[in-house]
# Entry
Amino acid sequence: MFKRLSTDYFNWILIIGVILFIFEIVFFFGGTIIPALFSALFTYVGWKYFRKLWGKIVFWISLVSLIFAILNLLAVRFLIIAAVVLFIIDYMKSKKEAKQYDPILPGGEIRDETLIDIKPLFEQKTFEDQATEDTAYQWKDVNIYGIFGDRIIDLSNTVLPNDTAVISIRHFIGNIEIYVPYEVEVSIHHSSIFGRAHILGKHEWKLMNRSLFYQTANYDSEYPRVKIITSLFSGDIEVKRI
# Structure
């Protein structure tokens, strides 16, 4: 969408946003800017003492207050509306400009592919915990997302293919636990806004808008191996041998 947006349009949106921001400061005595600053300060204090109960309470209450304070700013409301309008306009243009290309096979043949419907290892569950079975199960690559709950994957109860197994988890709030046998090579790429990471003996106690990328020494040459790609808004990840 932004590639098609001309510089003039972008500049006008930016100028109007700045004007609304100044207008709110001058005529509404700061509007929700001052509450937003206080909320940001308490959010930082809560995150600094997040290990304690009162720190968690202060953090989440201040974070919610900060989000609402930011959304109440006139400039932010304008930018959200402008983004939605531009998205709709860009989508309508893309539909009009879309072209269909039909592949031309040798001899003009049209071949129908045979597809096999495979049941995934995990169903998409937005608000529930998920875990692999305690008994032996057949491995299938994992590609799931969720909002709340924990995700637990135990690879000791399955046989990984003599290739690269893939685990992809995108989650909002909750913890991820992955148990890997000792003979399996591991590559993990994890990103988090808030949380902690315990990955094969490596410990990160405060992750704030960071990405981690680790892999075992023989990952590029040995099999079986598992590639783990995870992202969390808030939560902990643990990857350990079993």
